[in-house]
Request: fold
Amino acid sequence: MYKLKCLNCLLGGAIGDALGAPVEFLPLDEIIEKFGPQGLTDYAPSYHRLGAITDDTQMTLFTANGLLSSYVQKDLKDFVSIARTTKLAYKHWLYTQEHPYSQDLPAGINLKGPLSNAADLYHRRAPGRTCISALKSDSSLTSNDSAINDRKGCGGVMRIAPVGLLVTIYDAFQTGVEIAAITHGHPSGQLPAGVLAAVIRYLYEGLELPKALNQAITRLKTYKAHEETLNALNLAIKLACDRSVTPIKAISLIGQGWVAEEALAISIYCALNAKDFRQGVLMAVNHDGDSDSTGAIAGNVLGLIYGLDSAPSNWLENLELREVISELAEDLCDAPNWKINAQLAQPYPDDDLAWRKYL
Ligand SMILES: [Mg+2]
Reply:
């Protein structure tokens, strides 16, 4: 059951991302003009194919790989900061954005795991400027200080779902905040990532969405400068309870999702309002704003809640990088059961060694 939850969460996010990719920069009236009165209802070509993922899924995968590296290395080398290891993974992502694929990587770019040699990741898919500039300007590979900028774009929250699939509920919120802080210095660029990581964790552990949200909001209120994120979430919850407001109107009242608190709130609104995965992700991409990011976040949440049964079969079949997404999702589920042996020369007899690829 837990493996399926991990798969549905990451594959659901990637599907939402791929649905939103062709309309990321289109206002709703142009989406309707192009695709008809229902708006976008299926994959449309983007990046020369159907089902192309964008930077949101790329970075989500690097989050997953970074977390798993940290998880394995933490057991083996005392304490390795999760944020620091994840930053190394993001440095690897940055390299994929600026160089052609090569097996000979420079010093410091040495992520181990399913992404270490994935040639298909060497594509620029409208990467967030803050993510690129923060990772470029931070020459430190080891510091885990917060990014020195005042940015609150959604690049911190759209990549955070794997945190909720691996990190325990006690640490999920703070870990989400720290990982968003690698690139985003503004509290509203970080706290929505904490909320999403906690919501994902509570859903993973079996809570229903309203209760998961309540718990995450209680935690949010303990942080300084939480008001902007709290207000956006409260508006989403209020609108989801008001059936006299159409989803299109409600989303426009929340915002466009370019900033983190709006992207989170739009996604939560869609998850609260929809009756299944398909309806919710289509709601999350048909609006004026950052459709692929809201599609990705809503897809993570809706996949966990409803599974992917309502998705047309071509959404999974045509999804780019489906195999590597699935491998990382399964490893996130399995990791807590890995018997990681600190004596590397003496593996456990029944150890399947799946964890060794992250060393
Ligand atoms: Mg994107």
Observations:
- The CA atoms of residues 166 and 332 lie 6 Å apart.
- Residues 54-56, 126, 292-293 surround magnesium ion (CB under 6 Å).
- The radius of gyration is 19 Å.
